[in-house]
Write a structure and sequence with these properties.
The chain has 72 residues and is mostly helical. It has a domain of 28 residues. The chain is built from three helices and no strands. Helix 1 packs across helix 3. The longest helix has 20 residues. The relative contact order is 0.13.
Length: 72
């Protein structure tokens, strides 16, 4: 059984698992880095490539948010 991480993540799923097991400020920093990488990548593609991991996290974050709202 997965221990409860209330206070460190988002609202838990119906089965008690948190949506994101990381602290909200960690997720927020990665999302900010992703947006900055997209903006900087418009002028220099190297920044887009360097920020690609953060951009992938942003896409995953948006996907999970959409899917979790559809299940409510």
């Amino acid at each position: 059984m997965i221990p409860s991480l209330n206070g460190f993540g988002d609202k838990p799923h119906a089965d008690g698992r948190p949506t994101f097991a990381h602290q909200p400020w960690m997720v927020g920093m990665i999302l900010i880095f992703a947006v900055l990488a997209i903006i900087a990548g418009l002028s220099d593609p190297m920044w887009f490539l360097l920020g690609l991991p953060c951009i992938l996290v942003l896409v995953l974050y948006i996907y999970v948010r959409i899917k979790s709202r559809a299940n409510i």
